[in-house]
């Protein structure tokens, strides 16, 4: 069962959050540029868990920014975690980051 979790923050920039996660998870984030999602930071952990730091504002076709998640227009940054299964240890690590709030529970 694949587990998906979404977190949001208005406290950190993408680089600050990636740096915090690099220290906590002993991983490296790589910048990705997508026509669909804009610029994000991505890390893959040893167990194939993917952590993506994604801005809410993404470039739109009309030159204006669109929102990645319209339910949370007040949050400029999201952390998207995709794991092979529920990972309480990862959830504890992320819960320990001040200003990072879990928005959706694990779903598969």
Describe the protein:
This protein starts with a strand and ends with a strand. 19% of the residues lie in helices and 42% in strands. The mean pLDDT is 90. The radius of gyration is 13 Å and the shape is globular. It is an alpha+beta fold. The longest helix has 12 residues, at 14-25.
Short characterization:
The chain has helices spanning 14-25, 88-95, and strands at residues 3-9, 30-34, 38-44, 50-55, 57-59, 65-67, 77-83, 101-107. By secondary structure, it is α+β, with helices and mostly antiparallel strands.
Q: Low-confidence stretches at least 5 residues in length (pLDDT < 50)? A: none
The pLDDT mean sits at: 90
- Give the spatial strand order of the biggest sheet: 2-3-4-7-1-8
What is the number of beta strands?
8
- The ordered string of helix (H) and strand (E) elements is EHEEEEEEHE
Main beta sheet: 6 strands, antiparallel
- The count of helical stretches stands at 2
Tell me, briefly, the overall form. globular
Helix amount, in percent? Answer: 10-25%
Question: How does the helix and strand content classify structurally?
Answer: alpha+beta
How far apart the termini lie comes to: 6 Å
Strand content: 35-45%
């Amino acid at each position: 069962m694949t587990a998906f979790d979404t977190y949001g923050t208005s406290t950190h920039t993408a680089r600050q959050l990636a740096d915090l996660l690099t220290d906590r998870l002993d991983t490296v984030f790589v910048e990705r540029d997508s026509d669909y999602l804009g610029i994000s930071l991505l890390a893959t952990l040893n167990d194939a868990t993917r952590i993506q730091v994604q801005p809410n504002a993404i470039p739109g076709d009309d030159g204006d920014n669109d929102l990645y998640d319209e339910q949370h227009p007040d949050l400029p940054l999201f952390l998207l975690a995709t794991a092979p299964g529920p990972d309480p240890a990862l959830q504890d690590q992320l819960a320990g980051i001040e200003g990072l709030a879990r928005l959706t529970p694990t779903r598969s």
